[in-house]
């Protein structure tokens, strides 16, 4: 069996101020960050209600030595979690000892650019249904690639995926190594949602691939747990649209999570230059990219499209960073349960990439407040954040070579 052991580091125990929580070779964007100045749902970040001054947290390294870790999934009633590495590996990590085992039986991936082994999630009834779902990029012999989603049965004791099967490959394949999207989430009805990026298509007009329902680029797809397409998907009766599409008009959605009380699906995506977004997904919704967008073209300062508010056929973001704000390029995200950090109950945590921060948002219905940025002293590109269901601690995947998986716990 292919095993490896990383050194379990002593907790960094670097404390920062806080309130409480509920329960790449190719960079995503290079940018500067502006000082927080406004407090509207369209603007730069300002501390939300209950800024971090009521308690403290400690930051610990759980295990290190990962090659661009991308996603985290906790095994229930177990001290272990699954970690994907973009280079093509899936690992089982013991949260107590830091021991790491490489999981065998995973698919071959196209680990170039922003591609590789990407998200991981468990069937909602795991371990009774022992399926582990993976998203990853894979290529044909001609080099064209796309986002894939598949699943296998996890034999946790032997660190092996058994009977891995491909469920779906997003269409069409293209010769690009960027914007795969690839975040997953299950809703309360055990429907699986999978994000797909626009694959860096640069024609920013109405014919852009994210506005074309004959492709699955720039969309969120919805499946049954076995990979079949639900009968009530919004475009199943439209011969000019792909049946799997749930929403469209997305650029590169890399965050997806379910609100624990409302069941609403929250999604994050980053813009061209600024224009990053937090969205609440609606069935059949057009989220505007690139014909309605708050960002600008690289280096120009010119808007890409009209504002969402100028069109009545698109869904406006719950929160956005407009052109000139400095943006946030958001990664994976989670709602906080308050188990470990009571004052953060119900708040949304989002990993920041070029912003090198962990964003904390107060959510009110379908809107989010400006973020408070945590961990800015670390210099970490935070690819994703996930909450441990037993302890309520927040776990982070740091996007770098020889990188750690870290956690926040009460000090």
Automatic annotation (TrEMBL):
It holds the Pfam family GSDH. Residues 66-405 form the Glucose/Sorbosone dehydrogenase domain. Residues 19-54 are annotated as: Disordered. InterPro entries: 6-blade_b-propeller_TolB-like, Glc/Sorbosone_DH, Quinoprot_gluc/sorb_DH_b-prop. It comes from Salinigranum rubrum. Signal peptide: none annotated. Transmembrane segments: none annotated. Residues 19-45 have a biased composition (Low complexity). This is Glucose dehydrogenase.
């Amino acid at each position: 069996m292919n095993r490896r052991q990383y050194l379990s580091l002593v907790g960094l125990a670097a404390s920062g101020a806080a309130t409480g929580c509920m329960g790449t070779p190719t960079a995503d964007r290079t940018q500067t960050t502006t000082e927080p100045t406004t407090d509207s749902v369209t603007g730069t970040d300002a501390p939300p209600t209950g800024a971090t001054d009521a308690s403290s947290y400690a930051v610990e390294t759980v295990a290190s030595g990962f090659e661009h870790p991308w996603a985290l999934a906790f095994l229930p009633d177990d001290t272990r979690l699954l970690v994907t590495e973009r280079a093509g590996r899936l690992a089982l990590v013991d949260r107590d000892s830091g021991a790491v085992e490489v999981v065998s039986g995973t698919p071959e991936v196209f680990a170039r650019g922003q591609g590789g082994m990407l998200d991981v999630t468990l069937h909602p009834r795991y371990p009774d249904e022992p399926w582990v779902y993976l998203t990853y990029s894979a290529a044909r012999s001609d080099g064209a690639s796309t986002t894939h989603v598949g699943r296998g049965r996890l034999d946790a004791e032997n660190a092996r995926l058994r009977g891995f099967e491909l469920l779906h490959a997003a269409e069409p394949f293209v010769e690009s190594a960027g914007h795969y999207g690839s975040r997953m989430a299950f809703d309360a009805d055990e429907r699986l949602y999978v994000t797909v990026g626009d694959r860096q298509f640069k024609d920013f007009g109405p014919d852009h691939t994210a506005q074309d329902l004959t492709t699955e680029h720039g969309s969120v797809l919805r499946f049954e747990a076995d990979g079949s397409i639900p009968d009530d998907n919004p475009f199943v009766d439209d011969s000019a649209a792909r049946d799997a599409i749930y929403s469209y008009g997305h650029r590169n959605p890399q965050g997806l999570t379910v609100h624990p009380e409302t069941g609403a699906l929250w999604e994050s995506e980053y813009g061209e230059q600024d224009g990053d977004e937090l969205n609440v997904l609606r069935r059949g919704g057009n989220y505007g990219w690139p014909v309605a967008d708050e960002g600008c073209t690289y280096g120009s300062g010119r808007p890409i499209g009209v504002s969402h508010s100028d069109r009545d056929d698109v869904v406006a973001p719950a929160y956005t960073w407009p052109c000139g704000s400095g943006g946030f390029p958001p990664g994976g995200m989670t709602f906080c349960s308050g188990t470990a950090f009571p004052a953060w109950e119900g708040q949304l945590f989002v990993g920041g990439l070029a912003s090198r921060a962990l964003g904390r948002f107060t959510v009110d219905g379908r809107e989010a407040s400006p973020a408070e940025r945590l961990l800015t002293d670390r210099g970490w590109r935070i690819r994703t954040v996930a909450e441990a269901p037993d302890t309520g601690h927040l776990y982070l995947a740091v996007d770098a070579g020889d990188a750690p998986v870290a956690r926040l716990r009460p000090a």
